[in-house]
Amino acid sequence: MRHALEHADLPTGELDTALRGGPFHVALRAAIAARGLPLQRVQHHLSRHGVKVGVTSLSYWQQGARRPQRPESLRAVRALEEILKLPDESLIRLLAESDPHGEADTPAGRSYRSLVEAAGVLDRLRAELDRPADSGLHTLGHHECVRIGAGRELVAREAHHIVRAHRDGVDRFLVVHRGDPGCAPHETGVRALENCRTGRVRRDQDAGVLVAELLFDTRLRAGDTFLFRYAVEDGTAEATHEYLHHFDAPGGQYALQVRFDAAALPVRCRRFTQHSPEAPRSARQELPVTGPHHCAHVVEPRIRPGIVGIAWDWPR
């Protein structure tokens, strides 16, 4: 049986206020502090309830960096109410009210499962084009500009690549675009802007993936450098909350700029990195949206394998 808030172990000041008014992460932090339990002990108690949650996730929850939403995470929250001797539904109620500044424990539309499924589709489309996973190109510089429209949708993105061939005979580059939930790949397109032209294009509607060849009209030798630009035009999906790029190999500089329409400005913007799609997000940093063009950007001097991205929150 769970204990009421007036249990002697719990002060009725700060914790009582946090449980009444939230937000969730403040109430959770106050409850853990009131019980005097380190996160390792909280994790141990959860495991005794048959729930597995990492110390890192617990830390993110009480910092407000993430918000539990998956079924296993919600089981953990209900167990926490018992472990921390809180009233029934006290933390769950605060979650239902939702903290707009916290991230879900798996971002909408970018779950690990969906990324794995998209990777399988990409392998199939690459095979249809008879293109190996190794493009034969090393990235020296990669600059992207993503444009968000008045409807909060990803309208387009433009990319400028500086590459060096590491084998003879390389004459093309494979563009991959994975749209947001609700996108229509058959209505999206790739435009060659400089030093390339569009070749074959393949699409998968279910995964929201587009793959297109960019032809260089020249064959590079090992050691040759090459510059090219292209744009992907989309604008078919639902409101987007982030843009990320997944790198398989190390390289040179990467710069990402997100440009928001003046009619759709976010209330908060932040950068993040991940070692892999299933890993927790780290290196979070608040980003200003600056200038008359309403842009936020990140610059990585050296590309490392993993994910770099920008996420944002829309006003309600």
TrEMBL record:
<protein>
    <recommendedName>
        <fullName>XRE family transcriptional regulator</fullName>
    </recommendedName>
</protein>
